[in-house]
Design a protein that fits this description.
7-stranded parallel beta sheet
Length: 343
């Protein structure tokens, strides 16, 4: 099977490419950045280009059996126009190319950000879509376009993952890991007794690989960890594993939200609205549908995933690249770096 992956040099795209190659599939990727993985040299057809350009999208999907559309602009990119340009316009261009090329199935990697800040948990796939900020809104619009392409004859599947973590995941998690390594106090919004589900990237890859052939055309599927505690439980497990002197430092949620909103608008914080409006609330989805339709079962808990990722960070921190706006590089701590002086 030839699997085309948009956003193939990103954190998830890279892990998925490795999994597919290991299983003997042919893989073609498209990204603005290089794969930068010697283990995939000569084993993946790597294209450089932009999902918003029809010529690049056509090159990606030509002759492909399945498209996995993982290309996305993240909330840290700030501009609503920039996020929509990639997450909506880029998705439309790529799916149009897939439809024209006769691709059998297209899998859209969406997000649980489409649910906004719900009051009821666990969140089901049929719950209202009311995304937070530019990123959540763009994912909802992309899902609606996905349904439109399905009506035109393209077989589609939507995967809505919780925040996924694993080796090579940096971004906002690098900030947390950096502070734990230094034994700093860790600010948390609220008292940390809320349950916040994560997802191991290897478990996300497993779910997506199952979507390539499973009878799930037209479905939307939540995927997240099966085992998770409170934010306090999971972070304290990580601190204990790290042998760190770090302690959790609760911060009143409402004043912190207002302060972070101001810093975001001034472009002085690496955290977007989605981060600070959900961090102190329960946030977990039902994964029963994915279990039932895919025969999928997540392997790693929140705490195990955080420990695995932290250990990778420690082993590779000397090789980390300069700050940027993807999950595979550190994020500029900006105003949050001031907290290191008092933490």
């Amino acid at each position: 099977m030839l699997v085309a992956i948009s956003g193939g040099a990103g954190f998830f795209g890279l892990h998925l490419a490795r999994r597919l190659v290991a299983e003997g599939h042919a893989v073609r990727t498209l990204d603005l950045a290089r794969l930068a993985d010697p283990g995939l040299d000569g084993r993946v057809e790597e294209l450089r280009g932009d999902v918003r350009f029809a010529v690049d999208a056509r090159r990606l999907v030509a002759g492909a059996d399945v498209l996995v559309h993982a290309a996305a602009a993240l909330p840290i990119q700030q501009s609503g126009a920039a996020i929509r340009s990639v997450n909506v316009d880029g998705m439309a261009v790529t799916f149009a190319g897939a439809l024209e090329a006769g691709v059998r199935r297209a899998v859209l990697i969406s997000s649980t950000a489409v649910y906004g800040v719900p009051e009821r948990h666990p969140i089901d796939e049929d719950d209202p879509l009311v995304g937070v900020g530019h990123y959540g809104a763009s994912k909802i619009e992309a899902e609606r376009l996905c349904a439109a392409f399905a009506r035109r004859g393209l077989e589609t599947v939507i995967v809505r993952p919780k925040t996924f973590v694993g080796p090579e995941r940096l971004g906002v998690f690098e900030i947390l890991f950096d502070w734990i390594r230094e034994g700093r106090r860790i600010p948390i919004l609220g008292d940390g007794r809320n349950r916040y589900q994560l997802l191991a990237v290897e478990d996300l890859c497993d779910a997506v690989v199952r979507c390539l052939d499973a009878p799930v055309a037209g479905e939307a599927l939540n995927v997240g960890a099966g085992r998770f505690g409170t934010v306090r439980d999971d972070l304290e497990a990580l601190v204990e594993h790290a042998g760190s002197a770090s302690r959790l430092r609760p911060v009143p949620a409402r004043p912190a939200e207002l302060a972070l909103r101001g810093l975001e608008l001034a472009r002085l914080s690496p955290l977007a609205e989605w981060h600070y409006r959900t961090a102190h609330r329960d946030s977990f989805v039902s994964i029963d549908k994915a279990r039932r339709l895919l025969g999928w079962e997540p392997r790693l808990s929140n705490a195990e995933t955080l420990v695995q990722t932290y250990d990778w960070y420690l082993a590779h921190r000397g090789d980390l690249r300069a700050a940027g706006v993807t999950h595979r590089v550190p994020w500029d701590q900006r105003a949050l770096g001031l907290l290191r002086r008092v933490a």
